[in-house]
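Our preliminary data section would be incomplete without showing what the modeling component actually yields. Below, a chain of 746 amino acids is followed by its predicted structure, encoded as tokens that our downstream tools consume directly.
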Amino acid sequence: MVLAEAPLHSAEMLNLKPIVLDVRGMTCSGCAASVERALNNADGVRAATVNLALERADVTGTDGVTADDLVAIVAKAGYEAIPRSADAALRRAQAEEAEANRVGEERRTRWLLIFAALFSAPFLVQMVAMWLGLGWHMPVWAEVALALPVQIIVGGRFYAGAFKSLRGGGANMDVLVALGTSAAFFYSLYLAISLGTGAAGGLYFEAAVVILTLVLFGKYLETRAKRGTTAAIRSLMALRPDKAEKLVDGVATEVAVEALMPGDRVLVRPGGRVPVDGVVWTGDSDMDEALLTGESMPVAKHPGDKVTAGTINGGGALEIDVAAVGEDTTLSRIVRMVEQAQSGKAPIQRLVDKVSAIFVPVVIVLAVLTFAGWMVIVGDFEQALVAAVSVLVIACPCALGLATPTALVAGTGAAAKAGILVKDIEALEIAHRVNTVVFDKTGTLTEGRPKVVDIVPLEGQADDILRLAASVQSVSEHPLAHAMVEAAAEKQLVLEPSTQFKSHTGKGVTATIDGQRIAIGNAALMSELDIDASPAEADLANLQGQAKTAVHIARDDQVLGLIALADPIRPDARQAVARLTERGITTVMLTGDAAQVAEQVSDEIGLSEWRGPLLPNQKSTALKDLQGQGRIVAMVGDGVNDAPALATADIGIAIGTGADVALETAGITLMRPNPGLVAAALSVSSRTVAKIRQNLFWAFFYNVVGIPLAALGFLSPAIAGAAMAFSSVSVVTNAALLKRWRPKDD
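Predicted structure:
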């Protein structure tokens, strides 16, 4: 993925703004295609995509196109559109209203289905009796009495959908169902009027009634399954509380979260949900971040630690300084990224859209040809009608339209729950083909900050040497100084006051403690101060051979010992590399560190290759070299200097704790600094692509096999209707199985 090629980031589209619409009334891919075509044909609209699974349209237009204009365009196409508000609270209310509408529609469909099933039951009994050769038929008047309410009430739903579709210049599944059931019903009604009362024979009321019931049943199951695939985004949106306890002069007052500003202070009680991004001012507790980052274990929080909106506080009360609210919080960014991914279209979907756009007209033509063929060859009107109706009702554009988006929605939702955010849908589709993963070292494979790993005393005790070093470094901002102070704090060493602190650039520092000069630095500083460092030479060489940074600690003119520091390898880095190796993926490390350090880290982790030292632009060149060898490359990094490489790679994977520019450049973001999630990201990609392929296979299989069988007279209309209903349900249900995916699944 190359960021510069993404449409919304290119210079020519800077004047364009995205408008998101919730579209209601779509029943199949034909509906989605009609809405998308209407939007794309509108003046001023640059690009529009419609996602059937999410019932959402994303439109990019010029300043001359307003949301109201787009709503009118969608209405003219026969559907209802509601613009999404830019306000977080209003958007959440809209989402809740939309969900309530879906639940209400599902409830109405369930009652309608019960009604249809009750009226269909006698026809099913009659069909079974016919199959068993019992010759039992209901009277004509009974069939008419049972079929007429179903055709009017249940069929009315499909007539309305067909009318909207045709009015908008398209044709959807409702057109096929309406044509097929109407042909069966009205032909049977004509025969019934001709026959008068008495036993019914050669009527097809059961075909119309059973088809409507089965298709309605399929739509009901499809709706329930679709709600399941979109559960992840609803769960994320529900994480942030509406209220917060704002502290003013030590008094907590409940306010709306939207009323908070950066710099305010809030109280989060034990068991409460954090309403904002912020920093702990006072208090100690632990946070449940599972729903946000996928981290299963509580994370300890102390004064100075960052907290994120949506996480759940543990057993301690916390006072938190507000850093970000509303749309600026990490949670809101996550929701936007997941929505962006779920509403996007994978490249394979574009081909499916082209097929879906002409599907219904082609099926109608095939039904007409089937009818004509039977009339010419056999000359039997009933057989010709039955075959034509079977062709109409077995054809299912819904399965084609839902195959890809339902899998993408379920896959990205499952990934988000595991702490893997997919921003670029093409990245998810490409990820399963990755054969080389390139890691940055610092902050990705290592923790990104030095720690004291060895103390070698030449005089005195190790703790005394560390105490002196930390006492001097307590006033320094250097990363090595912080490491020494943290090491002393962990051992609860009491520091001594120091004076006359002086920094020697590139060499070290000096200060005075109890009238004695303390020097901390490299061999050059020791030489500058006329301190004999020869007693430490052997130990210094040994530590440097282990790729550790070693500094001398001297008091007056005597070296007391050495303190060795290193950037520790993340505890899960070895396992992460091992999992990638098991998948047959080559692992490479690019680093700006010295070759000795790079080799040491590479050997310890078990990487296939390493390259270093490299400047940021040289990392991009190294990636191009790998791509030139025919490799599909994923780059994993966290820093500003990784951004060019993340953009150069086929897929950029950013560590979520890293720099914002890295997160914006990458197509996939890992919410936890765990390199093991890299293999998980590739795994969820493989699973999602596999589901897409399975869904497309079954969608095409039903139609490619079913339509010819129906045309040749091997399928009755009722069986054809059942097959059509089952095709959509099977596709959506298969996609919903992705919700079970977990990071360790392979």
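The chain is about 50% helix and 20% strand. The two ends are 24 Å apart (CA to CA). Preliminary results of this kind motivate Aim 1 of the renewal.
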